[in-house]
Known about the structure:
The protein is α+β, with helices and mostly antiparallel strands. The chain folds into 2 domains: about 5-155, no CATH class; about 170-299, no CATH class. Helices cover about 35% and strands about 25% of the residues. The protein has 9 helices and 15 strands. A hairpin with an 8-residue loop joins strand 1 and strand 2 (about 20-25).
Amino acid sequence: MGKGRSLELYFVHGNPDGMQTAELFGWTGHVLLTPRTQIVEALKRKESAHTGVYVLFGESENGPLAYIGESEDIGARLRTHLSTKDWWETAVLISSAANNLHKAHVKYLEARMVEIAQTVGKIPLENGNTPARSSLSEAATANMEEFLDNLMIVLPALRIDMFLDKATSAKAKETVATQTTYPVFELKTPKHGISAVAELREGEMVVLAGSIARKEWVGDTGAKTHYFILHDKLLKAGVLALEGSHAIFAKDYAFSSTSAAGAVVNGRSTSGPREWKLKGTSKTYAQWEADQIKKDSAE
């Protein structure tokens, strides 16, 4: 397990869908998220005049779209985008609380964020090209990479996951395997030729590469069931590769719950605690979990 961190989220108007600020304890960065409907108020805040990077989110006629930029005065740049970009609905302003980032810092951050977003591939970018990284000293580069690491903790807390890659590389798998042995579970649906294996790693259900899943979603697509969207995203991203009558996990992929993992594997809503079984046994995940709780209580 990684070290715990303390995150402070502040809902400016007491509304989770309105303007928010986010800061990590011990981190100099500051994040302001604002819907476009509140941009006038957001531009009055002191951090809007800081040097930093920003991300715009919205919808084009072709679907979700984002834009990543930098400026020595974020607010001034956003005023320009109000008249030149009509598709965005949400802006995220990223700066330092003390306004001590300079032009080279933010150009480096912009380039790295574009690189990460393009690699993850969740949302298309309006950015025409990947900007070149600015030339920084070795120490400054290390500082900006640490800034990015902290930022990648904060953004998902604001429900921004375009930089979050749940796919796990073979190298990462090899590294963790040498450190810890994780519980292994199976989900099999012989009637449909489905057979998946997953490891419970640090609170995430990681379905392993080579697992066989259903190639299309056959379950409910109503508002209460959103896993069909995830299934479709993984197909488009190549995490699930079509092979004959099935879809094969081309790489390890970490899910936030057993039910999310089970739903993508089965192509329908799935009770993960009941359908995943401890490998080589008939014990369900729920039963294994109960055993762990009893063991901890006894100790």
